[in-house]
Amino acid sequence: MATKDITTRESLITAARQTANGMIVDVAEVLNETNHVIEDAIVQKSTDITSHLVTRRSRLPAVSWVKVGNGWDATVGLTNQAREEIGMLKARFLAPQDVMDIQANPDKYRANQERAYVESMGQELSNTLFGNVSAGALSPTTNPPEEFAGFQYRYNALSTADTAYVLSNGHTTDDDTNTSIWFIQWSPTKVYLITPRNMEGGGLKKEDKGLVYTVGDDASGTPTIPQKNKHLWAYITEFSWNVGLAIEDQRSVKRLCNIDPDHTADNTLDEDKIIQIRNNFKGNDKIYMYCNETVFTQLQILAKDKTNVNWTGEDPFGRPQFNFLDMPVRRCDRITNVEPVIS
User: Domain span at residue 188?
Assistant: First the structure.
């Protein structure tokens, strides 16, 4: 017989926790996080149905200085191709009809529960983008076939090469107490999220299946057509997000790693390294800095010195926005403080 617990589907226990004096109460979403990367990312449709083909310039054509009257040789530039993966992130809300029938406000109850699915999917996408293995149950130590490769899988070794610019902030104690700042140049020709070319809505879909006749908790074995099994009626909503990450220009992502989260330590944030990374970017596309709450606080402590002209506190339209030079600093709570030393 199938085993169910409180985290498997809706039940009278989950319903009771949202009811007071016969009314459905508002739910304080205390598990929500700040992950601005979801707001900033550019989304484009893929070249194929389940993947995306990226073509990169690998060599420029040679040119020559010539004298008047002399000839010159024909040359050619070279390119290479890479295929980016698209993953399927799915979730299902299932509430037996008996649970919904006793609700004072079934629509509000269902909306309370369904809102959390979108938040959870956003957190998992942010976790996958930054490759924090220890931060999510769906992120194992190796890149699985179901999940696209995030930034940390691709920029996981120190290098000053343009194709993998990863600098160390200096913390070398191998105690898994490190964090990073990520610098990303979102652009349709540089870094963007991809969704299947035949899907709308950025690949994110919510589908109300309505009242569905489905297998109950006490059903046994695999039902067959002539076999009578234990079924029930339930309301089902399914959520899916078909999404991947494409990096056309590998110079458009950079990382400052090995930052000690302890602001009293010797290897706290080095502003000079941030300037070095900023100046290594090519082109005029906006560069976003992504860090967690710990580093964001360290940055604001540095910025409170009025003589520090590197930091500004609002965007051109007067809205609150923390910037370093021309780079918006954005919070992403999926970047952890438990990264290993990058060497």
Answer: 12-53+82-331
Return the structure tokens found at 49: 């149905």
SS3 106: helix
C-alpha dihedral (173, 175, 176, 178), degrees to nearest 10: -30
According to the model, what pLDDT value does residue 138 have? 44
In the chain, the number of structural domains is 1
Tens of pLDDT, residue by residue over 92-106, are 988 889 888 888 888
* Secondary structure (3-state) at 267: coil
User: Of how many residues is the chain composed?
Assistant: 343
Tokens 């009025």, located at residue: 306
Q: What is the pTM of this model?
A: 0.81
The CA angle 262-298-341, to the nearest 5 degrees, is 45
Residue 72 belongs to a domain: no
Strands in the chain per DSSP E? 19-20, 23-24, 43-45, 51-59, 78-96, 165-168, 179-184, 191-195, 204-215, 231-247, 253-259, 288-291, 311-314, 320-324, 327-331
User: 228 or 42: which carries more pLDDT confidence?
Assistant: 42
Check: CB of residue 196 under 8 Å from CB of residue 46.
Answer: yes
What DSSP letter does each residue of 70-99 carry, written as one string?
--------EEEEEEEEEEEEEEEEEEEHHH
